[in-house]
Design goal:
Layout: H1 2-12, E1 19-23, H2 30-33, E2 37-40, E3 58-64, E4 67-73, H3 84-97, E5 101-110, E6 120-129, H4 156-169, E7 173-181, H5 189-197, E8 202-204, H6 208-216, E9 220-230, H7 241-265
Parallel strand pairs: 1-4, 1-5, 5-9, 6-7, 7-8
Antiparallel strand pairs: 2-3, 3-4, 5-8, 6-9
Helix pairs in contact: 3-6, 4-7
The structure holds hypoxanthine.
Hypoxanthine binds near residues 108, 187, 204 and 244.
């Protein structure tokens, strides 16, 4: 960790971020527009490379609306073959850099039949179906407790602020439960039906490990899903990453406006 922090320090002139943002598939544009310092993951000690299309793989520091922000332009995924510890390491790094507020974003499929591609959902809770937990292993007491409480992972006040921002920007903000599976295959129709029965509204392959670690570290979390497609079995269409990226591209300016307003208010 000290090597990681020392390396980052060399490029950021003592920049102390207060807000962290993880930008999901196709949602990285804000870090192209606002960028004071950027460091590719492959150069940062302890970081694994993010390998998939739609993800750039760099840490971007910028002041946005008078708030100091660090953004992950692209994240690491469990399905890439990284361990749960590896994909959540950047969250611990953000914590050590001073981040207390975290915005997690992702692209997700609609499980709730009233949702449509192009919708934005604020995450109210999650279901971990990844079959693993990033906190497995020895506990680092300096970061958090062995058995962290998970009864309010997503900050209630941030959810209200998101609704308020939605009203200002004329975006109908959906609320829902995000369910994560490991991927990389999309879910089957039977799995999505099960997800709906057990209370999920949107399905994806990320965010949950980061939310677990950030909650464990005592960060306040806001989660946003861009609904990019109907999940399996809802429409006749087959699922594809190109559809996910295409819808994310269509929503990205609306999404960026929302994030900019939230940065101001959280
Ligand atoms: N399922 C899982 N992950 C996803 C989906 C989906 O339908 N869409 C975007 N990411």
């Amino acid at each position: 960790m000290q090597d990681t922090l020392d390396y980052i320090e060399q490029f950021t002139d003592g920049f102390k971020p207060e807000i962290g943002i993880v930008l999901g598939s196709g949602l990285g544009e804000i870090a192209d527009v606002y960028c004071e310092y950027k460091i590719p993951y492959e150069h940062i000690p302890g970081f694994s490379k993010s390998t998939i299309e739609g993800h750039k793989g760099q840490l971007v520091f910028a002041e946005i609306n008078n708030r100091k922000v660090v953004m992950m332009q692209g994240r690491m995924h469990y399905y890439e073959g990284h361990s749960m510890q590896e994909i959540t390491y950047p969250i611990k790094v953000m914590k050590k850099l001073g981040v207390e507020k975290l915005i997690l974003t992702n692209a997700a499929g609609a499980v709730n039949k009233s949702f449509r591609p192009g919708d934005i959902m604020v995450i109210t809770d999650h279901i971990n179906m990844m079959g693993a937990n990033p906190l497995i292993g020895p506990n680092d007491k300096t970061l958090g407790v062995r058995f962290p409480d998970m009864s309010e992972v997503y900050d209630k006040n941030y959810i209200k602020l998101t609704d308020k921002a939605g009203r200002i920007l004329n975006i109908d903000i959906k609320h829902g439960v995000y369910i994560a599976s490991s991927g990389p295959s999309y879910e089957t129709p039977a799995e999505i039906k099960m997800a709906r029965y057990i209370g999920a509204d949107a399905a994806g392959m990320s965010t949950v490990p980061e939310a677990i670690v950030a909650n464990y570290c005592g960060m306040r979390i806001l989660g946003l899903s861009c609904i990019t497609n109907f999940a399996a079995g809802i429409s006749n269409k087959k699922l594809s990453h190109s559809e996910v990226i295409e819808t994310a591209n269509n929503i990205k300016s609306k999404f960026k406006e929302l994030i900019l307003l939230l940065i101001k208010n959280i």
